[in-house]
Every structure is written in structure tokens, then in C-alpha cells.
């Protein structure tokens, strides 16, 4: 249950051989343990994630 950092990038389009710049970047923590903690919180269960 290792935590992970997930980064999602959105591009207008990808052009081969040119610089492609993201128009939107989102960073979230993830992994099984973190995802379980999120669901428990939504269910009203108090919990703590230790990394």
C-alpha cells in the first residue's frame, strides 16, 4: 500500500518534433491506502494516513 504522487497533464494537441506545453496540470496523492482513507472519510470514518 505505497502512497504515490499522480500528475495529470492536459494538452491542446501533441505535435511531433516540437515543444508541447500543458494547458492544465493536476497533482494528487494516490495509492491503495490513500484511496481507502478517502472512501472511509466519505463514509464518516475518522482515519489518518501515515507515509
- Please state the average pLDDT score: 94
Biggest pleated sheet: 2 strands, antiparallel
Strand order within the widest beta sheet: 1-2
Quantity of strands, as a count: 2
By secondary-structure content and strand pairing, the structural class works out as: alpha+beta
Total separate domains: 1
SSE sequence, one letter per element: EEH
Number of helices: 1
Radius of gyration: 16 Å
> What gap, in angstroms, lies between the N and C termini?
10 Å
Beta content? 25-35%
Architecture blueprint of SSEs:
Elements: E1 4-11, E2 22-30, H1 32-42
Antiparallel strand pairs: 1-2
Question: In words, what does this structure look like?
Answer:
This protein is of the alpha+beta class. The chain has one domain (4-42). It has one helix and two strands, in the order ββα. It has one helix spanning 32-42, and strands at 4-11, 22-30. Strands 1-2 form a two-stranded antiparallel ribbon. It is elongated.
Keywords:
51 residues, alpha+beta
Provide a short characterization of the protein structure.
With 51 residues, the chain is of the alpha+beta class. It is 22% helix and 33% strand.
